[in-house]
What we know:
Number of helices: 9
CATH superfamily of the largest domain: Glycosidases
Shape: globular
Radius of gyration: 22 Å
Number of strands: 23
Amino acid sequence: MKKTAHLLCCLVVAGSAITANGQQKKTNGISYWLTSPEKKMALQQQSNALPFTATDKGIATITIEDTKKFQTIDGFGFTLTGGSATLIHQLPEAQQQALLKELFLAKNNGIGISYLRLSIGASDLSASVFTYDDMPDGETDPTLQHFNLNEEKKDLIPVLQKIVALNPAIKILGSPWTPPAWMKTNNSFIGGSLKPEYYRAYAQYFVKYVKEMKAVGINIDAITIQNEPLHPKNNPSMLMLAPEQAVFIKDHLGPAFKKAGVKTKIILYDHNCDKPEYPMSILNDTAAYPFIDGTAFHLYGGTIDALSTVHEQFPAKHLYFTEQWSDGKGSFANELKNNTSKLIIGATRNWSRNVLQWNLAADAQWNPHTDKGGCSQCLGGITIDGSAISRNSSYYVIGHAAKFVPAGSVRIGSNIAGKLDNVAFKTPAGKTVLIVVNTDDAPQQFQIRVKHKLATTSLNGGEVATYVW
């Protein structure tokens, strides 16, 4: 069921439209934005606000229950990999600043990214592998005399400083792919485990990272201990089993943060939904438990309801969704539908306080990435090809949430009606936001019920919509 309103494109703010002459026109009812699977519309506000009526048409109905409150939202965004930062930093200054405003501010045509993940040292989407304390073969540095952020001062830190200037409240999570090789059992960036004799030094490595980033104006809100600790074949990577992570936190990192006055949150696991027993075993450790803020998940294995499994056992601890890629060889339609359904909707309906896609930017050949293990077809939220910038599926997946659901919003009740996957939020400003994806191939007409009022709308197969009132 096509809508004539699909043809209108305008600059937007929630609950209003900007006319051609720049005058703001107030609308009554529900304002909404659409992205279509064929990308004819891309996060585009529709001209016709949906009016509320008292008439129940007896069709599929999404009922909003704002008295049912769940978790507070910390934000939506991406991993700003080293490669992403390099590509952005290479743009001419004016173009770079315009892009950052589009990415990190919600007004006008911006998508309002409010949460970033960084790699502590290189990730597999860096051009080369490094840590902040690399030593020649055979040498060690247990007192971290050689620790430095010099590699990050080339691109990452300058870009981050511009982002923080635009959005000082942005939340930033740091995750290491590997410690320095000299701390590991195999003296390699790939695989191996952390030697017990270097647990103390590695805890201080995190302390130094947080403090030195703060010194250049970057506040690290949280860290995970190890990216994908059960995947030691990436480049870089490290194997860290749950008992090792528990000992590291309770005997070293937790006490080190406390002694140094570091308030950065400690988050467990940072890997797939197929092993919720990993974080739960650590949360069951009474000595580790007080130092832990929560658990982070990816979705390359298992099902998203693993987050609820952890929540049910440990309701006082938070849940985070920190990584899912978009496939450079996949279709826009499938990536849009699946990642909106599984991540924006699925993760938040299972208690996640954030949703992050992997990664923010790549070039047209899905570079840069490391050799021998780095992801060779990870599609960025944006593609930067010289000075040309294109926007990909995850840009719109994240945009449909980040633009309208700021940090401090609270998830509220809504039912799943047939194949209309959805999630609802109440913003700090009192707006209600409903995100819906039609996972069916056929068009679907439905109602949105708010107390005794109803509004009728429809979505074509694979379309994503954000409704605001």
